[in-house]
Design goal:
Helix content: 55-70%
Number of strands: 3
Oligomer: single chain
Largest sheet: 3 strands, antiparallel
Length: about 130
């Protein structure tokens, strides 16, 4: 009986750890989606790219910073043009949703840091 209780406690701790681990990702995504409802500068490709970045971050074990390559991100977010991809990731950085450090070396990925959504730059009502 004692063994069963100990196993139950371990499973409970594991479930709590998993919820905490993935809970951050869900909270970030929900905060982003709430914020972009009010931001007229954000389009569907920005949303697709941000969601794909979070998915890649999960796939890579939540590494900080996230190392990304355009050739791995573009199919994930259904962006076919490299100019569109680079413009959108730069704009996410400029708008304050991520911190993007481009790498001009084909062997090193660009670095992405997720910015807490509450600290995003304010925006104007005019579309830029």
């Amino acid at each position: 009986m004692r063994v069963v209780c100990e196993i139950g406690r371990r499973i409970e701790k594991l479930v709590m750890a998993i919820n905490a681990y993935y809970g951050q990702q869900v909270e970030m995504l929900n905060a982003f989606l709430e914020r972009v409802k009010e931001d007229p500068r954000i389009g569907t490709t920005h949303i697709s790219l941000y969601v794909s970045l979070i998915g890649l971050w999960q796939d890579k074990g939540f590494e900080k910073p996230l190392s990304v390559f355009s050739h791995e991100m573009m199919p994930r977010c259904k962006i076919s043009g490299s100019a569109t991809y680079h413009r959108n990731i730069r704009e996410l950085h400029d708008f304050g949703y991520i911190k993007y450090i481009p790498s001009y070396n084909h062997f090193l990925g660009s670095l992405v840091y997720f910015v807490p959504i509450g600290s995003c730059l304010s925006f104007t009502n005019k579309r830029i």
